[in-house]
Design goal:
Protein name: DUF5412 family protein
Radius of gyration: 14 Å
Shape: globular
Number of domains: 1
Largest sheet: 7 strands, mixed
Pfam family, one: DUF5412
Structural class: mainly beta
């Protein structure tokens, strides 16, 4: 992720009991003919505000973050022709549309389940 061009997306969205906060961020790429990547970062407040990325994908037209319950976040990332929306357990699951996080030795201890497109 190139943090030089980061833009804020939806968030912060506080979980029902306030244990977690979800924030989405955008990263434009490729100039006029490019696109936008997005990721969702979770902050766990009862553990010294530890942050981790749980979602990474191309951004679509409709982006929303909605807590289903205290530890489950529904990420809407939908457009007219495709959807990369998913419901994730923020402590044990991650999503990377290209599967890079699922194959990463550095991240293998960070999650129990990794989803990819």
């Amino acid at each position: 992720m190139n943090k030089t061009y980061i833009q804020n997306g939806p968030g912060p969205v506080l979980s029902p009991t306030g244990e977690f906060t979800a924030n989405a961020y955008y990263e434009p790429y490729g100039g006029a003919a490019g696109g936008v990547n997005m990721w969702v970062e979770i902050t766990k407040h009862n553990e010294n505000d530890i942050k981790k990325v749980i979602y990474y994908s191309d951004a679509n037209d409709n982006i929303l973050l909605d807590w289903v319950d205290e530890k489950t976040l529904f990420i809407t990332n939908a457009g007219p022709y495709k959807s990369n929306s998913i419901k994730l357990d923020v402590e044990h699951e991650i999503y990377h549309d290209r599967g890079l996080a699922c194959r990463s030795w550095l991240l293998k201890d960070e999650y129990e389940t990794c989803y990819q497109k």
